[in-house]
Protein backbone atom coordinates (compact mmCIF):
# COMPACT_ATOMS: atom_id res chain seq x y z
CA UNK A 1 0.00 0.00 0.00
CA UNK A 2 1.51 3.36 -0.91
CA UNK A 3 1.42 6.24 1.54
CA UNK A 4 -1.18 8.18 -0.48
CA UNK A 5 -3.77 5.47 0.10
CA UNK A 6 -3.08 5.11 3.81
CA UNK A 7 -5.25 6.80 6.41
CA UNK A 8 -3.89 8.67 9.40
CA UNK A 9 -5.06 5.66 11.40
CA UNK A 10 -2.76 3.43 9.31
CA UNK A 11 0.13 5.89 9.47
CA UNK A 12 0.13 6.10 13.26
CA UNK A 13 0.16 2.32 13.59
CA UNK A 14 -3.53 1.48 13.82
CA UNK A 15 -5.23 -0.19 16.75
CA UNK A 16 -2.09 -1.06 18.70
CA UNK A 17 -0.76 2.50 18.63
CA UNK A 18 -4.11 3.98 19.62
CA UNK A 19 -4.42 1.51 22.49
CA UNK A 20 -0.99 2.56 23.77
CA UNK A 21 -1.87 6.24 23.42
CA UNK A 22 -5.18 5.91 25.26
CA UNK A 23 -3.51 3.88 28.02
CA UNK A 24 -0.85 6.58 28.41
CA UNK A 25 -3.37 9.43 28.26
CA UNK A 26 -6.10 8.55 30.74
CA UNK A 27 -3.99 8.12 33.87
CA UNK A 28 -2.76 11.66 33.22
CA UNK A 29 -6.33 12.94 32.84
CA UNK A 30 -7.57 11.18 35.97
CA UNK A 31 -4.70 12.62 38.02
CA UNK A 32 -5.05 16.18 36.69
CA UNK A 33 -6.85 18.41 39.23
CA UNK A 34 -8.60 20.42 36.49
CA UNK A 35 -9.76 17.40 34.50
CA UNK A 36 -10.42 14.66 37.04
CA UNK A 37 -13.75 16.17 38.17
CA UNK A 38 -15.04 15.68 34.61
CA UNK A 39 -14.07 12.02 34.40
CA UNK A 40 -16.17 10.07 36.84
CA UNK A 41 -16.86 6.47 36.13
CA UNK A 42 -15.04 3.45 34.86
CA UNK A 43 -11.77 4.53 33.25
CA UNK A 44 -11.70 1.35 31.15
CA UNK A 45 -15.05 2.19 29.56
CA UNK A 46 -14.01 5.79 28.93
CA UNK A 47 -10.77 4.56 27.37
CA UNK A 48 -12.69 2.11 25.18
CA UNK A 49 -14.95 4.88 23.88
CA UNK A 50 -12.02 7.22 23.28
CA UNK A 51 -10.16 4.56 21.32
CA UNK A 52 -13.28 3.92 19.22
CA UNK A 53 -13.72 7.63 18.56
CA UNK A 54 -10.07 8.20 17.66
CA UNK A 55 -10.10 5.17 15.38
CA UNK A 56 -13.00 6.65 13.45
CA UNK A 57 -11.60 10.21 13.53
CA UNK A 58 -8.33 9.05 11.99
CA UNK A 59 -9.93 7.12 9.14
CA UNK A 60 -10.14 3.66 10.66
CA UNK A 61 -13.32 1.63 10.99
CA UNK A 62 -16.37 3.62 12.21
CA UNK A 63 -16.42 1.78 15.54
CA UNK A 64 -17.87 4.65 17.55
CA UNK A 65 -20.77 5.29 15.17
CA UNK A 66 -21.61 1.61 14.92
CA UNK A 67 -22.15 1.40 18.66
CA UNK A 68 -23.29 4.88 19.67
CA UNK A 69 -24.45 6.64 16.52
CA UNK A 70 -22.90 9.82 15.14
CA UNK A 71 -20.14 11.14 17.41
CA UNK A 72 -21.67 14.61 17.97
CA UNK A 73 -18.94 15.16 20.56
CA UNK A 74 -19.82 18.75 21.43
CA UNK A 75 -23.41 17.78 22.23
CA UNK A 76 -22.28 14.72 24.19
CA UNK A 77 -19.95 16.88 26.28
CA UNK A 78 -22.43 19.70 27.02
CA UNK A 79 -23.27 18.34 30.49
CA UNK A 80 -19.63 18.93 31.49
CA UNK A 81 -18.13 22.34 32.16
CA UNK A 82 -15.33 22.56 29.63
CA UNK A 83 -13.42 25.80 29.94
CA UNK A 84 -10.54 27.06 27.79
CA UNK A 85 -8.13 26.19 30.62
CA UNK A 86 -9.53 22.67 30.84
CA UNK A 87 -9.25 22.27 27.07
CA UNK A 88 -5.58 23.28 27.32
CA UNK A 89 -5.05 20.86 30.21
CA UNK A 90 -6.58 18.09 28.09
CA UNK A 91 -4.23 18.95 25.23
CA UNK A 92 -1.25 19.03 27.63
CA UNK A 93 -2.12 15.53 28.84
CA UNK A 94 -2.42 14.38 25.23
CA UNK A 95 0.93 15.96 24.33
CA UNK A 96 2.53 14.14 27.27
CA UNK A 97 0.91 10.87 26.19
CA UNK A 98 2.16 11.36 22.62
CA UNK A 99 5.65 11.90 24.04
CA UNK A 100 5.30 8.77 26.16
CA UNK A 101 4.35 6.57 23.20
CA UNK A 102 7.02 8.27 21.10
CA UNK A 103 4.73 9.44 18.34
CA UNK A 104 6.55 12.12 16.44
CA UNK A 105 7.05 13.75 13.08
CA UNK A 106 4.53 15.13 10.66
CA UNK A 107 1.86 12.58 11.56
CA UNK A 108 1.99 13.70 15.20
CA UNK A 109 1.74 17.35 14.17
CA UNK A 110 -1.29 16.65 11.99
CA UNK A 111 -2.96 14.51 14.64
CA UNK A 112 -2.33 17.06 17.39
CA UNK A 113 -3.59 19.91 15.20
CA UNK A 114 -6.85 18.01 14.68
CA UNK A 115 -7.15 17.34 18.43
CA UNK A 116 -6.51 21.04 19.10
CA UNK A 117 -9.43 21.94 16.81
CA UNK A 118 -11.67 19.48 18.63
CA UNK A 119 -10.60 20.77 22.05
CA UNK A 120 -11.54 24.30 21.01
CA UNK A 121 -14.94 23.16 19.77
CA UNK A 122 -15.65 21.46 23.11
CA UNK A 123 -15.30 24.65 25.16
CA UNK A 124 -18.71 25.51 26.58
CA UNK A 125 -17.93 27.63 29.66
CA UNK A 126 -15.70 30.52 30.69
CA UNK A 127 -12.62 30.02 32.83
CA UNK A 128 -13.87 31.98 35.84
CA UNK A 129 -11.08 31.47 38.37
CA UNK A 130 -9.34 28.46 36.83
CA UNK A 131 -5.69 28.58 35.97
CA UNK A 132 -3.43 26.00 34.46
CA UNK A 133 -0.08 26.18 36.21
Describe what this molecule looks like in 3D.
The protein is mainly α and 133 residues long. It has one domain (3-122): Globin-like (Orthogonal Bundle), CATH 1.10.490. Helix content is 63%, strand content 0%. The chain contains seven helices and no strands. α2 (14-31) packs across α3 (43-57). The longest helix has 18 residues, at 14-31. The chain is globular and about 45 Å long. The protein starts with 7 loop residues before the first helix and ends in an 11-residue tail after the last helix.
What structural keywords apply?
mainly alpha; Globin-like; 133 residues; globular
Order of helices and strands: HHHHHHH
Q: Can you tell me the CATH superfamily?
A: Globins
**Main beta-sheet annotation:** none
What is the fold named in CATH at topology level?
A: Globin-like
Kindly name the structural category: mainly alpha
Tell me the number of helical segments per DSSP (H or I, 4 or more residues long).
Answer: 7
Query: What share of the residues lie within helices?
Result: 55-70%
The overall pLDDT, averaged over residues, is: 91
**Named CATH architecture:** Orthogonal Bundle
Strand content: under 5%
Shape category: globular
The CATH top-level class label? Mainly Alpha
Low-confidence stretches: none
Number of domains: 1
How would the blueprint of this fold be written?
Layout: H1 8-12, H2 14-31, H3 43-57, H4 63-68, H5 73-77, H6 84-100, H7 105-122
Helix pairs in contact: 2-3, 2-6, 6-7
Gist of the model:
The protein is mostly helical and 133 residues long.
